[in-house]
Amino acid sequence: SPHGIPIDLLDRLLIISTSPYNEKETKQILKIRCEEEDVDMSEDACTVLTRIGLETSLRYSMQLITAASLVCRKRKGTEVQVDDIKRVYSLFLDESRSTQYMKEYQDAFMFNEMKTDTMDTS
């Protein structure tokens, strides 16, 4: 059977093609998310967040909304600005930056300090 799926089940499946979101769609999704979380965001900050969403992932950029809102509140602001987005972007890594960081500093972590010695198993 193809792909390890029984033929009778394969005949009933429907193939749905999908495509990545474009910039306009991503921005609209992020604006809706801001409304749902009661976050006021400047247009420039929304543009920066949209760019982050396109370069990394939509999930990551949506998670930055809440963190940026908290940073904004801490500085006693009423609207999330570009500086708030930059601050949380520097604090929270996305998957690719986290992977790059781990590769760069892998020798500094504890799990790399243990040397494999030949053990006597007799």
TrEMBL record:
> TIP49 P-loop domain location, by residue?
1-23
The record's keywords, sorted A to Z, are:
ATP-binding, DNA damage, DNA recombination, DNA repair, Helicase, Hydrolase, Nucleotide-binding, Nucleus, Transcription, Transcription regulation
Q: Which SUPFAM superfamilies match?
A: P-loop containing nucleoside triphosphate hydrolases (SSF52540)
Which GO molecular-function terms appear in the entry?
ATP binding; DNA helicase activity; hydrolase activity
Q: What class of enzyme is it?
A: hydrolase
Q: Where is the RuvB-like AAA-lid domain?
A: 29-94
Q: What is its EC number?
A: 3.6.4.12
Where can this protein be found?
Answer: Dynein axonemal particle; Nucleus
GO CC terms for this protein? dynein axonemal particle; nucleus
Q: Which GO terms describe its biological process?
A: DNA recombination; DNA repair
**Predominant location category:** other
Residues annotated as signal peptide: none
Protein family: Belongs to the RuvB family.
- Function, please? Proposed core component of the chromatin remodeling Ino80 complex which exhibits DNA- and nucleosome-activated ATPase activity and catalyzes ATP-dependent nucleosome sliding.
Its assembly, as annotated, is: Forms homohexameric rings. Can form a dodecamer with ruvbl2 made of two stacked hexameric rings. Is a component of the RNA polymerase II holoenzyme complex. Component of the chromatin-remodeling Ino80 complex. Component of some MLL1/MLL complex.
Q: Which PANTHER family match?
A: RUVB-RELATED REPTIN AND PONTIN
Name of this chain's protein: RuvB-like helicase
Per the UniProt entry, what species is this protein from, by scientific name? Answer: Xenopus laevis (African clawed frog)
